[in-house]
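quick one: flavin-adenine dinucleotide bound model?
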Amino acid sequence: MRKIAKSIVIIGAGMAGLAAGCYGQMNGYRTKIFELHDLPGGLCTSWLRKGYVFDGCIHWLVGSSPANNFYRVWEELGAVQGRQMINHEEFFRIESKDGKALIMYTDADRLEAHLKELAPEDANTIDELAGLIRKFASVQVPIGGGLLENLKIMGKMLPLLKYFRQYGKLSVKGFAGRFQNPFLRESFTAIFNMPDFPMLALLMTLGFQHRKAAGYPLGGSLNFAKAVESRYLQLGGDIRYKARVTEIITENNRAVGVRLADGTEHRADAVISAADGHATIFEMLKGQYLDDEIQRNYRELPIFQPIIQVSLGVGRDFSAEPHNLTYPVSEPLSIAGELHPTISMKHYCYDPTLAPPGKSALVISFVSNYAYWQKLGYGSEAYRAEKEKILAQVIAALEQRFPGSKDQVEVSDVATPLTYERYTGNWQGSMEGWLITTATLRKKISDTLPGLKNFYMIGQWVHPGGGLPPAAKSGRDIVKKICQEDGRKFSTSTP
Ligand SMILES: Cc1cc2nc3c(=O)[nH]c(=O)nc-3n(C[C@H](O)[C@H](O)[C@H](O)COP(=O)(O)OP(=O)(O)OC[C@H]3O[C@@H](n4cnc5c(N)ncnc54)[C@H](O)[C@@H]3O)c2cc1C
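yep, here:
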């Protein structure tokens, strides 16, 4: 007699939950995803406002081309087939008050030449940087393939091990300190605007871009997520939208299903939470399955601060402008209680699907403070007033650099940390979960909870640094783990 396939409930249809669903279906499990929003993707999203699509996520997607082995995972998930990827010539550009511009070219040779022109006194450090980028271009993502594949990856990574050791504890700020040229030193420090952002993470990012393996998927982030949703549905998966899980039901220290906000119960043989870690552990499971480390993590580990995203639909063609530009403003902007001397603007003119012809979708974002917004309260008068104030300042700042633009703004939208919290459930509106620092770079966070069986966690709250590839990989890895526990051979094709 044929054994009935085990059932799995997955909480959240972000990239991690969708991936777990796909691999679960590929391996003969009966999966069901419950998602609180009415769309797939979680943080990997975009939104339509009066003819403009504002993208809220992907700037670079590791594995966007077969030059990086993670491409295979995106293929398995149906995300990249037939999708055009844009590889920018410039990663970003930072302008100074006195008219200088640091252009982070994605091509290491071009970057090297440009930096040497800007700062000939730093030729040695620039050589070191460019050499490292070329070396890190061959980094592959270990995705746990067969023996042959693992050996191949190890062969490619072996020559890099000494650099991983050498630069493992160095931050971008630490590296920037080596530049004698003040503009280069300041601009490099500002790259990720985080005090302890690991140099290794920057080198990998620049290496992938040099290799043209971290592009932008044409069509934007929501379309990318929808492709994975389609794959899941084709595989026979089941997604329920507007279905907020309020409780993970346990019996005898086993997860046996979930309860939704509407009171309905949904039983399964196993539960995977691909939702926010804090809510999963402290709300859905009421803090019943904890150890010292988990408590310490949620008390002490830094998280990515939330952001404010100002999106503008502008009746003007920005395609000749740098697509990712940071420039100084005449007076610091006062944004949610903090002063910002520069503004960072992206336009998406390279993706014609996001704005009507001759017009531009712009995104300006600021790292912000959750507590400030929480105090205002979602939807309050003070909250709305702060959004208006931010919008007015951003439009004025745009006008400084692009005269005439203030009268060309046709559509505007301001998303706050509370928007991210509301639509994705992420703790304190965090944009990527645990902050990546030189200390958390190699930190492992368990994908199970002490004392609870048949329960797993995936996504950015078990992978410091977040990002779409780790989210997708965690969905893949968890199904592999469940297959191992069930004595099944893991498969990446349809059963
Ligand atoms: C502005 C921005 C830019 C980014 N740029 C990039 C980039 O260029 N490249 C890159 O790789 N990554 C990027 N990221 C990071 C990336 O988007 C995230 O790390 C990744 O999408 C996280 O996926 P996830 O599935 O772990 O979590 P999420 O996307 O947060 O998904 C969790 C899902 O669970 C749902 N959920 C939560 N609680 C419940 C509940 N109680 N019941 C039911 N459902 C629930 C949520 O609605 C959500 O859909 C960016 C993120 C942001 C915000």
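The radius of gyration is 23 Å.
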